[in-house]
Design goal:
Layout: H1 2-33, E1 37-41, E2 47-52, E3 58-60, E4 70-80, E5 86-95, E6 99-105, E7 107-112, E8 115-120, E9 126-127, E10 132-141, E11 147-155, H2 164-216, H3 225-239, H4 244-255, H5 266-269, H6 277-283, H7 286-294, H8 305-309, H9 330-345, H10 356-365, H11 376-384, H12 387-394
Antiparallel strand pairs: 1-11, 2-4, 3-4, 4-10, 5-8, 5-9, 5-11, 6-10, 7-8
Helix pairs in contact: 1-2, 3-4, 3-9
Length: 403
């Protein structure tokens, strides 16, 4: 669960970083594009120049500009029909005859032959969308001039609000925040469920271990036996690579491996002498009694396997079914090894505890016959590396507050 949560957070962070990088690149592109000069010439539908001569503002003056007797006032209008604003613009207007300027307004003018060049004042240099900019001049020429062409140069900054990619990026951010919100809500819900699940598991643990106490309490020599066997079994499972869920199920199964002994008379379980053949046959019924007791316990898969098969042998000479090898469920094969180690390592009513050297020799001797040969090296390793000693120290027969 923690790994999954970490992966989700990592994906969210990487996605946000990617979005920020795309956004930065996008606005950098928009900024650079605004520095590009665009050109609009006669016939353009985006930026249009119109020229007019106000009626009555034409006169003749043969003395002021020799050879250019016709004076007139000309009004110029630049109209922006584009979807973006026009900035830092200038215009070159070509007429059908030479000209000279007498006076002008709203900008700077210059003349070269038939051409008039105009750069607007600062406050006139911006033409918004569907807006106009006006300028004008008093011009002398041989006759009333006609415009033969024009060329307008200016910058048109990209407007992110008019670009589809802006809305795509916005939508991606929106999706990211929605997902983040959903993840937070989901995380909180999962966390709440996990807490409830942990609480339920704790109740289950306590219930099973309390029940285990009743099993082990029937025999003073076996106090905490089921707990130790469960811990050994879970560690064997961990060392052979079982997943966490399987380890937990194995733990529960081995805790209850001797549950059938509840159905065995106390006088037989506590008999300090040698069992008769009849008594031994009764003892051998405890696996099937355990199966019967656990048949309605369906919350944990195969919970009865350890109770059912922990007295089976790898060579098929065990009981109650006489199955062999890998026909015996893995959990039961593990329980057999763990149970045998605990039995050999502690004092019993009919035998003294064996030392580790003797236990190891016994396991090696019966590897492949009584025990799964792949599990024997694991239990030996647990003896050699001190794991078994720690369990015995914490959950020994005399310890009662660990149930």
């Amino acid at each position: 669960m923690k790994n999954k949560e970490y992966n989700v957070i990592r994906v969210l962070i990487l996605t946000l970083v990617l979005l920020i990088a795309v956004t930065a690149a996008y606005f950098l592109y928009v900024g650079k594009s605004s520095q590009k000069v665009r050109v609009f010439e006669s016939g353009s539908d985006e930026v249009v120049l119109t020229v007019s001569n106000p009626e009555g503002k034409i006169w003749e003056d043969i003395y002021r500009y020799p050879g250019l007797p016709c004076g007139a006032e000309y009004s110029f209008v630049v109209t922006n029909y584009d979807k973006r604003k026009l900035t830092d613009w200038s215009v070159c207007i070509e007429f059908d005859a030479p000209l000279d300027i007498d006076s002008s307004w709203n900008g700077e003018y210059s003349v070269d032959g038939n051409c008039l060049y105009f750069t607007p004042d600062q406050e006139m240099s911006l033409v918004k969308v569907d807006d106009e900019s006006y300028f004008g001049a008093v011009i002398y020429s041989r006759y009333l001039l006609n415009v033969t062409g024009y060329r307008i140069e200016g910058k048109m900054p990209l407007d992110p609000k008019t670009m589809p990619l802006t809305y795509v990026i916005f939508a991606l951010y929106l999706i990211w925040f929605i997902y983040l919100g959903a993840h937070i809500l989901s995380h909180n819900k999962i966390e709440k469920i996990q807490k409830q699940r942990d609480h339920d598991i704790e109740i289950l643990n306590q219930s099973i271990r309390t029940f285990t106490y009743f099993i082990d309490a029937k025999d003073r020599y076996t106090r905490n036996h089921s707990v130790r066997v469960a811990i050994y079994a879970k560690e064997i499972g961990r060392r052979i690579g079982l997943q966490e869920e399987d380890l937990q199920n194995l733990y529960y199964g081995t805790l209850l491996h001797d549950v059938g002994k509840i159905g065995i008379p106390d006088e037989i379980l506590r008999n300090e002498g040698r069992l008769s053949d009849a008594e031994y046959e009764i003892i051998k019924t405890h696996p099937m009694k355990g199966v019967e007791m656990l048949k309605h316990f369906t919350a944990i898969p195969d919970i009865s396997d350890c109770a059912h098969y922990h007295h089976e042998r790898y060579d098929g000479k065990g009981y109650p079914e006489g199955i062999k090898g890998e026909q015996i469920p893995l959990f039961a094969r593990i329980a057999t090894v763990a149970d045998a180690f605990d039995v050999m390592s502690l004092d019993r009513m009919y035998q003294k505890a064996m030392g580790y050297e003797d236990i190891i020799a016994e396991f090696k001797k019966n590897s492949g016959t009584q025990f799964d040969p792949k599990l024997v090296p694991v239990i030996i390793e647990m003896m050699n590396d001190g794991f078994a000693d720690k369990v015995r120290a914490e959950y020994g027969p005399g310890v009662t507050d660990k149930i």
